[in-house]
Amino acid sequence: MHVVATAGHVDHGKSALLRALTGTDPDRLAEEQRRGMTTDLGFVHTRVSVAGDGDSDGCEDVAFVDVPGHERFVPTMLAGVGQVTAVLLVVAADGGWMPQTTEHLDALAALGVRRGLLVVSRADLADRTQRDQVLARATTELEGTGLEDLVRVEASAVTGEGLPQLRDALSRVLAGAPRPDPDSPVRLWVDRSFTVRGAGTVVTGTLAAGTVTAGDELVLPDGTAVVVRGLQSLDAPVAAATGPARVALNLRGVAPAAVRRGTALGAPGTTTTTTSADVRLLPVPGRTAARGDGRGGGRGRGLGGEDRWPEHLVLHLGTAAVPVRVRPLGPAGSGPDGDRVGQHGGHVRLSLATALPLRAGDRALVRDPGGHRVLAAALVLDPAPPPLARRGSARERAGVLVAVSEEAVLRGDPAGELERRGQTTRSALRALGLRAAEVEALAAVAGVLADGDHLLSPVLAGALRGRLPGELAAHRREHPLEPGPPVEVVRRRLGLASPGLVAALVGSWSAGGSPVAVRDGRLVDATAPAGAALPPAVQRAVAAVLGDLERAPYGAPEAHRLRELGLGPRELAAAVRSGELERVAEGLYLTAGAALAAPAVLAERLEDPSAAFTASEARRALDTTRRVVVPLLELLDRRGATRRLPDGTRVLLRAGGAADA
């Protein structure tokens, strides 16, 4: 299927042409039929022969979106053309080029529509000279817009003149249209919503790419999940629809009021709902001073033509129209590759009055509703931009955005997105609209570090990896009793999103080996033995304690003895980390390995090792005090070397039980 929109000034015969082509009146509202003027979007379809394409009969479905031409309904027109394959730009032979033709052309050019037909309508009401004049003016207006190659056709819906040629030309144009990726993440901009008795809520829209299937779960911008109960395309039930296509979805879990025009339904996790986005603004293609703006004014005065942005601006994207404020980034006039794109051109941050589900690569336009004109084309570069908190951060941000190529952002560039962000998550990249398979493949790219959902770019990883030895040295200077900083401290100092990325940095060191390591939750010197060396004064004090324990292995020094030696909590903790001492309980320290050996000592010295024994018997066997034996036995209980019985006695479970602790 292909989706084609009309465009052109009011009363130039757009609806009449579609009626003649399809046999169906696109004006579905009674008021439209009474007044003879389109006021809302209309939808009709037909089949045309498409060379080298189509079904078994050589034909393919073409859905038409008929848009209103009156300037009061420009927002409605813009809602209809955002997702189409091609356009029928209609200019009446007896009316000529008009202001709304200009604004419609500006919108098409800004949104990147490049395929279609220029139809000189109502040909029966003009002679050859008039027709040639209209064609000449149209050719001038199309110059530089990207729509210069529109196929020209003269037709009359009344007499039928040119209709076969129009159908043939449409077939040729659509035969060369590129096919969107059927596996692209789904996003459907709603243009109608209503209730069908017995079915519930139904929404319609143009599916630009991807595939939607009955039973799919989609989400609204606020995160509300809905289920596709069923779908139709071109008035017929289908099991699935692949873009481009006109579709109607029967939804479960939402009321029509929650999915009005301008709402988007998307595959979960594939858009970023935001009120802030960094975009590249470009002048409307083909807008030059010589051509004018269709209202007698020059069209080359920059994006706005004033010294500042108009106060009231609207961003049009998909079927949405949202008021926005514009904040220029970097020097005025700074555009991609240094091009000047107008007084306020280049890169800006948009603040949206209402959150929209955006993706990198979205095409939109900025319109001045008061001036009845399209000011600029907008390409969304980042729907999740960083805050501009520091002085000069806006200029720095502009420098980053200048380096982003339009081709890359439209194609989808996971590696580039990761490099610009430094660190991000897989889910955040998918929310930019990037394909899940390409995002997952990033983890295998050389230099990329991953920890669960978190990703670190090669450049940032290299910079942070180089800081690790310095972080270790600085911590050792400030805390000489510690072997190194806790991993969580390193994570915070480096600004990493997860502790696992610290370990990934250490593990990613080059073949020469890492000078640092992660042990027991700390960043330590990889070349040092497992026990960090103690400062000399602490080492002497610990040696004195070890001397005491050599004479009485279970005679843990009392608090006053530790104070005399200058061993406070920090020094004792360092001695434990170094492997010199073992902490049994608060304030109770033995030689490393003494607790491990205690079950074997008990088995050797108790009168009957297989019988239950009391704490007093254990105290005598270990030649210690109750102050030591009670917490030591509790430690052995926890390690599974002993078990406490209901009467308070204990039994040995295994002499080496502590070895498994």
TrEMBL record:
Region (Disordered): 286-307
Keyword field: Elongation factor, GTP-binding, Nucleotide-binding, Protein biosynthesis
Gene Ontology terms: biological process: selenocysteine incorporation
Signal sequence annotation: none
A GO MF label: GTPase activity
Domain (Tr-type G): residue spans on this chain: 1-179
Record-linked InterPro entries: EF-Tu_GTPase, P-loop_NTPase, SelB_WHD4, T_Tr_GTP-bd_dom, Transl_B-barrel_sf, WH-like_DNA-bd_sf
Keyword Protein biosynthesis: yes
Domain of life of the native organism: Bacteria
Pfam family membership, one: GTP_EFTU
Assigned GO CC terms: cytosol
Database matches in PANTHER family: ELONGATION FACTOR TU, MITOCHONDRIAL (PTHR43721:SF22), ELONGATION FACTOR TU-RELATED (PTHR43721)
Protein name from the UniProt record: Selenocysteine-specific translation elongation factor
Origin species: Quadrisphaera setariae
